[in-house]
Amino acid sequence: MIDFAPLWLTVKLAFITTLILLFLTIPLCYWLAYSRFRFKAVLEALISLPLVLPPSVLGFYLLIAFSPENVFGKFLSDYFDLRLVFAFQGLILASVLYSLPFMVNPILSGLKNLPVSLQEASFTLGKSRFTTIMKIILPNIRPSLLTGIIMTFAHTVGEFGVVLMVGGSIPHETKVVSIAIYEEVESMNYDNANVYAGILFAFSFSILLTVHLINNKSRKTTLY
Amino acid sequence: MIHFKARKMLQTADGELPLDVSFSIEKGQFLAIYGNSGAGKTTLLRILAGLTEAEKTNIEVGNEIWDSSQNKIHLPVQKRSIGFVFQDYALFPNLTVKENLEFALQKGDDSKIIPELIELMELQSLQNSNPQNLSGGQKQRVALARAIVRKPKILLLDEPLSALDDEMRFKLQDYIFKIHQKYQLTTLMITHSIPEIFKLSNKVIVLDKGKILKEGTPGNVFSEEKISSKFKLTGEIISITKSDIVYVIQVLSGNNIIKVVATEDEIKDFKIGQKVLVASKAFNPIIQIIS
User: Fold this and answer.
1) Is residue A30 part of a domain?
2) CATH number of B230-289
3) What is the CATH number of the domain that holds A177?
4) Taking a C-beta distance cutoff of 8 angstroms, is the pair B41, B35 a contact?
5) Chain A partners within 8 Å of B79 (Cβ)
6) Identity of the residue in B84, B87, B88 whose CB atom sits nearest the CB atom of A124
7) What is the topology classification, in CATH, of domain B2-223?
8) Residue-wise pLDDT tens digits, A42-83
């Protein structure tokens, strides 16, 4: 009988990561799209870094940073009683950083494709920036938002390297499906590994299918 | 009364160009802004609207100060009583025509203005359509109606009719004029069309490389050289007929047929199909061959 805890933990991690990233990314992307900031290119490169960096590199640096023996980890442990190494909270923070480009890129390109005049028209009609974002900008980049949400969720589900470095494999705490598969194979339980792998395979495929269906549909009803 | 004064460096394809403009308009006037592209026309409207900030400004509307670089006043766009019609219409694609208008309502506004504007701009049959399904002229009417919902003091039109064919243009000019009068607006419109300026505006400023070149009534600005001595038209001879002792030559110029009287001596050189120049000095037309 397989253990469903890793599946549940994976879904929980992906859900929380996506939610945090969604709220974090909208203001970040708005700022990136419309402000003129000298070091914007540097910041954009930093955000995209997890796309090319081996997950183990990111995981390694996070492990060092989170360690209570170092400044950041000590600060968290002393002032907030928070230990991020080998803990679910640590996984969330690591996942947020690791999946950041998957949320930022679609939303940013959606914003950049939206004519600036829409926003300006809303301002001339007496609407605040917040109302403009909620009522005009976000509804008009809905396909980009959906793509960002789905890709972030799927990408977090597929994490392995970062989780292994930062979280290890503690049941109910940091042992997600991808880690579980690895352990089942290591201990020659191919049947269990097969079930986990099959579930992830089916899940990933249906996610990508959804993204493509959404994109095709939105292409048919282009804005202009 | 609107007093406008602004100075700003413009980034153009030919390098930096200082925009330095100062003018006044009476309440209720219709001002046309005319000039080559890159002269700073759109920037001028955007500074007045508060969408673009200038280095040195002084904008007074009635007894309100909208912009004053000296006193560090910059009234945000939202607080300025303006209606702005963008060149690309800027209709919200996620809202229907009616919802686009309703979006412009402020808290506590009387929503009766929506059906009133829908009727005035003849949008009844389109009110539940999405903007992306409308033609250029229809979009323009919606954009115009939406700009009026707040009952602004000033209406700003950024080349609203440039993308439309002639028939649509004439119709929309009428709509613009109707709205200008009914809501007692002060209107500023950027346009490239001189007939449009004569039809709609009672004041015009000609902008060139960031400076005001000429300013005045359309008649003063556009006809001072031409009215003095003569007019010239080019055309093609389409017929030469004898009438009593003189000949009548019909010349097609554009869509107009001009009849010119000529003597038997003069007629010898003319043939049907020839390109000619028709010029008139006072009331004495002269006709000569140009090719």
Assistant:
1) yes
2) 2.40.50.100
3) 1.10.3720.10
4) yes
5) 126
6) B84
7) Rossmann fold (3.40.50)
8) 999 999 999 999 999 999 999 999 888 888 888 888 888 888
